[in-house]
């Protein structure tokens, strides 16, 4: 049984105003974890020597038998026999922690692209085809903002969260991160207003039949995708209200991502030029 004195290695992670301490029993773990943190948290700072007090603590137990374990704030998150799965989980768990506790930004689980300087936000759960649709929009010339979070600032603008696109093969747990440049894309760099919120999910042979939602309906659709809705409901609801009041909100099932992207791109260009 490992004790606190065995956790000699430590780093401090700073992202979006949140401080996270990560400890491990073996420095070799950080050789693997630090690149994953950078890929999961664009722009994060990692300090190898800071003694600053963190709000949250993760512990990664590096086991020679590859039965690695992850703890968050003293509670076991998972034990994995496959190290690549344990490392992937670590990155995503730290990212969720940042999204939940960021003091100045509200994180909505969504893909985001920009056309003509205006954002399309595509809120969706994991494995709903969100990243695939985002990638197809980028192929057509949309500017990439994120395939993970719409990060909403105090003005109700969406900020870049430009992690690599995470694509998953059918039945696979671990995603493959692909740089946006491989899709011929460019990354957004400035906060921009949200002009369209697209509520959609993949369904084989579905027809594109968009219907307009009211701001109230759009608000309710976004709530389940808003990460800090329980932790900081006042700020979360204020930001959601701000973006639904100024955006067009449409809902529809969709089939092929490439065809949907083409339809959406033409529609957006026609209506918002």
Describe this structure in words.
The protein has 273 residues and is of the alpha+beta class. Helices cover 30% and strands 32% of the residues. The chain contains six helices and 16 strands. Strand 12 and strand 13 (176-178) form a beta hairpin. Helix 1 (28-40) crosses helix 2 and helix 4 packs across helix 5 (233-246). It is globular and about 60 Å long. The mean pLDDT is 90.
Q: Tell me the β content.
A: 25-35%
Radius of gyration: 19 Å
SSE pattern? EEHEEEEHEEHEEEEEEEHHEH
Given helix and strand content, the structural type is alpha+beta
Using the alpha-carbon principal axes, give the shape. globular
Q: Strand order, biggest sheet?
A: 3-1-2-4-5-6
N-to-C CA distance:
63 Å
- The total count of strands amounts to 16
Separate helix tally: 6
What can be said about the biggest beta sheet? 6 strands, mixed
Helix content: 25-40%
* Unreliable parts: none
Can you give the mean pLDDT? 90
Architecture blueprint of SSEs:
Blueprint: E1 9-15, E2 18-24, H1 28-40, E3 45-47, E4 56-61, E5 68-72, E6 75-80, H2 83-101, E7 106-115, E8 118-123, H3 130-139, E9 143-146, E10 149-152, E11 157-159, E12 165-167, E13 176-178, E14 192-202, E15 211-212, H4 215-223, H5 233-246, E16 248-254, H6 257-272
Parallel strand pairs: 2-4, 8-14, 14-16
Antiparallel strand pairs: 1-2, 1-3, 4-5, 5-6, 7-8, 7-9, 7-10, 10-11, 11-14, 12-13, 15-16
């Amino acid at each position: 049984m490992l004790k606190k004195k065995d956790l000699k290695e430590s780093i401090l992670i700073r992202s979006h105003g949140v401080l996270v301490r990560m400890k491990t029993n073996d420095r070799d773990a950080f050789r693997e974890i630090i690149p994953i943190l950078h890929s999961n948290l664009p722009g994060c700072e990692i300090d190898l020597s800071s003694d600053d007090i963190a709000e949250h603590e993760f512990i990664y137990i590096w086991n020679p038998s590859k039965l690695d374990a992850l703890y968050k704030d003293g509670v076991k998150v998972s034990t994995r026999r496959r190290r690549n799965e344990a490392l992937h989980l670590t990155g995503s768990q730290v990212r969720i922690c940042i999204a939940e506790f960021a003091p100045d930004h509200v994180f909505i689980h969504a893909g985001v692209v920009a056309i003509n300087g205006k954002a399309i936000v595509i809120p969706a759960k994991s494995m709903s085809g969100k990243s695939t649709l985002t990638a197809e929009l980028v192929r057509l010339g949309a500017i990439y903002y994120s395939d993970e979070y719409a990060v909403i600032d105090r003005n109700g603008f969406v900020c870049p969260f430009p992690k690599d696109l995470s694509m998953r093969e059918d039945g696979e747990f671990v995603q493959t991160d692909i740089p946006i440049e491989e899709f011929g894309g460019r990354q957004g760099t400035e906060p921009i207003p949200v002009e369209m919120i697209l509520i959609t999910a993949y369904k084989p042979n579905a027809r594109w039949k968009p219907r307009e939602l009211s701001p109230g309906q759009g608000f309710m659709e976004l709530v389940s995708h808003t990460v800090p809705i329980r932790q900081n409901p006042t700020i979360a609801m204020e930001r959601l209200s701000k973006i639904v009041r100024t955006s067009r909100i449409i809902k529809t099932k969709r089939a092929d991502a490439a065809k949907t992207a083409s339809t959406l791109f033409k529609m957006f260009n026609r209506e918002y030029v």
